[in-house]
Amino acid sequence: MVRIALGLIAGCVSGFCLALGNPAVEATGTPRAAARLKIEVKLSTPGGAAPVDGRLFVVLGAPSGAEPRTEIGQTGLKQPPVLARDVARWSPGSEVGVDSRSALSPLRDLADLPSGEYRVQAVLATNRDLLLPNAPGNWYSKPVVVHLDPAQRAPVRVVIDQQIPVDSLPKDTEHTRFVKFRSEVLTKFWGRPMFLRVGVILPAGFDSEPTRRYPLLVRIGGYGSRYDLVERQMAEASEFRKGWMAPDTKRFVVVQLDGAGPLGDPYQVDSANHGPYGTALVEELIPYIESTFRCIGQPHARFTAGGSTGGWVSLALQVFYPDYFGGCWSGYPDPLDFRAMQLMNLYQDRNAFVNREGFERPSARELNGDTKFTMRHEMQVENVLGWGDSYIRSGGQWGAWNATFSPRGKDGLPVPIWDSRTGAIDPVVAEHWKKYDLRQLLADHWTDFAPRLRGKIHVWVGDADDYFLDGGVRLFEDFLKASKPAIGDRIEYGSQKRHGWHPRTFVETLAEMQSAVEANAPKGAQAGLDYLKARFGHAANCPNCKGTR
After folding, report:
1. Which of 97, 191, 339, 494 sits 20 to 30 Å CA-CA off 301?
2. How many CB atoms neighbour CB 208 within 10 A?
3. What is the DSSP string of 511-526?
4. Three-state SS sequence of 229-262
5. Which regions in the chain score pLDDT beneath 50?
6. What is the dihedral sign for C-alpha 95, 101, 107, 113?
């Protein structure tokens, strides 16, 4: 049995301090009365009376500020309390309630809720393809300010009668384009039409040089980053736009992938639960993008880059498709070695929530090393987010990792790597995760990988990374240093740098990629002609250059 101190953990939510300890006993040791508070939610959906299935969230937000629904899923003791439950065949016009029996975070018990003023807002998540509380098509209520007391008997009532606009692409501009692409392999896997959404940034002079062709940069953002990120980056007067449009910036086409799917961020690789996202990317989407936006369309002129989630994905794509991409630039990546899954050795540790000494395991730290939040707390948040009160369908970080790396169960759901309540790790599932442990994968097939990855791997991370991701990078580097033949990789560390540190600017990174394009361009007379045709345009009737958008 793990011993957990009963001392109080203090945090402030909605202006009130919360006491998070043993949910059944107050600090004095006397039993507490169970919370009687109940919030009744009425569904009022215009235009139809068909019953709906979904995940219902009720947020108890601060009396003023942004709409409380925008804070669903945030981790930390200062976040507003969220209650959640599944609903099945909920008929418009009827009510369902949340109370002390509902999933809850960050409080341990609804009885801990301080009495006071709150803005209460409900959200009904029904979008099957984008596992986000505020996904297009989901429903919500207008916030109502009420006084709440966990002991009150009178229920609070809110009405869900607003809908988030259905999915639509932003408007194209001179330098940004948006694509919603139907994937046949994902459609077959999921049994319904499935689409990949991407944002494209076009280089200066794209329209004025209609025969010129460009290298392609496939970019992946941090966890859950959406494709429309490019709209903000290319906004007038933005620093990114200034650098991108500068006359000496190397000219690329950039495609920003989408970090949302039916089980959270799909991580852009083939998996038993997300489906064949890697196949969809390299066999369907990239050929379409390269044809439509005049890319060179050859491996030496095709790169990946990203940070955090994008750091892992960019390196994973380079490893899984070593001949397809010409290099990866991977910043502060998610764990590259699962012996350092943040602070956990997935293959030796028995519990995700506590370490071998029985202490709570941190999941994030401050620059001075102090704990920001623990694994147990993070899992409590994801259990609230997840259908079935489980992180495996939360759309959160651990839920998406689990969907990517775990096998699919007989129930059609991802098999959990650990118990959602106790944290006990399943060693059988951990074996399946090895297929996505990039250090392990390279170690098992190094003689095959080494010549195909020479000069292609660039990784950087701060040595004070918020999520302890430097540990996995160091183990990955140790492996590369000890392996023969060497591949000319570059691993960089920022002293006292946190999550998000970059050793160089985006413009400088593009210059490095352009150098790789030129260094690895086909050699020889015929190869040179082929390269020039690829870069500056084929004949009008070339079948490889045709494509519709």
Report:
1. 494
2. 7
3. HHHHHHHHHTS--SHH
4. HHHHHCCCCCHHHHHHHCCCCCCCEEEECCCCCE
5. 1-28, 525-526, 529, 538-549
6. positive
DSSP helix/strand/coil, 361: coil
What's residue 532's pLDDT?
52
Closest CA to 161 of 143, 188, 136: 143
| Kind plus residue range of the DSSP H or E element containing 278 | helix 277-279
SS3 536: helix
Cβ atoms < 10 Å from Cβ of 143:
21
3 state DSSP class of 54: strand
pLDDT value at residue 31: 56
Same domain, 208 and 273: yes
| Residue 171 domain-assigned (yes or no) | no
Residue 360 lies in a domain: yes
Q: Is 496 inside any structural domain?
A: yes
- Considering the domain architecture, whether residues 20 and 100 belong to the same structural domain is answered as yes
163, 185, 208 — which closes off a domain? 163
- Alpha-carbon distance of 353 to 331, in angstroms, equals 27
32-61 per-position pLDDT tens digit: 678 899 999 999 987 667 899 999 999 999
Q: Which helix (H) or strand (E) holds 291?
A: helix 286-292
Give the CA diameter of the chain: 87
- At 527 the pLDDT is 56
Asked if residue 105 belongs to a domain, the reply is: yes
Question: What is the Cα–Cα distance from 256 to 254, expressed in whole angstroms?
Answer: 6
Task: Give CA–CA dist 122/140, Å, rounded.
Answer: 5
Q: The tokens 């030796």 sit on which residue? A: 348
3-state secondary structure 432-484: HHHHHCHHHHHHHCHHHHHHHHCCCEEEEEECCCCCCCHHHHHHHHHHHHHCC
How confident is the model over 248-274, as pLDDT tens digits?
999 999 999 999 999 999 999 999 999
Q: How many residues does the chain have?
A: 549
Angle at 68 between CA 63 and CA 72, to 5 degrees: 140
Do residues 393 and 276 share a domain? Answer: no
123 close to 59: Cβ distance less than 8 angstroms: yes
Contact status, residue 241 vs residue 248, Cβ threshold 8 Å = no
Beta-bridge partners for 179 = 198
Q: What is the pLDDT of residues 365-403, one digit of tens each?
A: 999 999 999 999 999 999 999 999 999 999 999 999 999
Total-model pTM: 0.90
In this structure, what CATH number is given to the domain that contains residue 269? 3.40.50.1820
State which of 141, 163, 185 marks the end of a domain: 163
Contact call for residues 278 and 320 (beta carbons, < 8 A): yes
User: What is the extent of the structural domain holding 510?
Assistant: 176-337+438-545
